[in-house]
Amino acid sequence: MQIYCGLKPNFFEFCHKFLAVAYNHSVKNPVLRSFAIAAAGVLAGAVNGFFGGGGGMIVVPALVAAGLEQKRAQATAIAVMLPLTAVSAVMYIAGGNFPAGCGIPAALGVCAGGAAGAALLKRTGNSVLGFIFAAVVLAAGVRMLFF
C-alpha cells in the first residue's frame, strides 16, 4: 500500500467520510453529526498547531468531498480556523516562539491579504477556485520537498 507523508490513503478517506456524515443534512442523529464535526475540527486543529498552519489543506478538500461547493468550503475553513489559530498563537507566544519584530509586520500583511483574498473569492468561479487551490497546495508540497 502506498504511503503519503507517513499516512495511509485510507486515513484521508476516513476523514472525508467523517466530514460527509458531519455535513450530510439527512443524518438525523444530531449527536453523531456534532461528534463528526468536532472530530474533524480536532484533526484540523492538531495539524494547524503542529505545523503552524495547514489545517485548511485538510478541511477544504474534505468539505468539498462532503458536498459543499468550493467557495463555501474555503469560506467555512477560514471561519473555523480563526479560533484554532488564536489558540495556537497564544501557545506559541507563551512558549517564546513569536519574534515580534517579524511577527507583527507579517500579521498586518496577512490581514490585508486576507481581506483582498476574501474580496477576490466573491468574483472567482468554483471550478477556477478549485484549480487554483489544488495548484497552490501542489506548489507548496513540491517546494517543501525539493527546495
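Next protein, fold it too.
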Amino acid sequence: MTDVRNVLSRFANTIDLKDWDVLQDLMCDDIEIDYSDIGGYHGWVSSQSFVKQRREALASMKTHHQLSNPEIVVNGSVAHCRASAVIYRQNDDGFCHSHVIYDFVLAYFYNCWRIQKIRQQVLWNEEKGLEYPVASEIFADI
C-alpha cells in the first residue's frame, strides 16, 4: 500500500511543481476521468491529453494539493483509493480553493503502479477574485 500512496502523493506534488513529464509517467496510456460532478467531462482520454489540459489550465496559477485520509484497497493488480483533498489555487487575480473527494483506480504493470482512473467530487469551493473554470471548459477540446 505504501507504493500506491506514493503514486498519489507524487500525483499531487507533480501538479504543484508543474513537473508534467513525471505526471505523465504516473499514468496509464489512457485514463478514465470523471469531472461530471461539476458539469465536466467523463470518459476515456489519453494521458497526454490530460497532462496537456492540466498544463494549460494551471499555467498562471500557483497550486497546492493536499491529500489526506486515504482509503486503499488492493486486489491483485488493481488498487482503489479514496482520499480527501484540499486544492489551493492562486494567481494575481485572487484565489479559488476546492475541498474534494478523489477516487483513484491504479493498475500494476511493468513493475509499478499507474493511475488508470481519476474521479473528483467537489464538496465546496472558496473563491475571491478568481473564478476557477468549470471542468467542461478545462476539458472542452478532448
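About the second fold: The chain has a mean pLDDT of 91.
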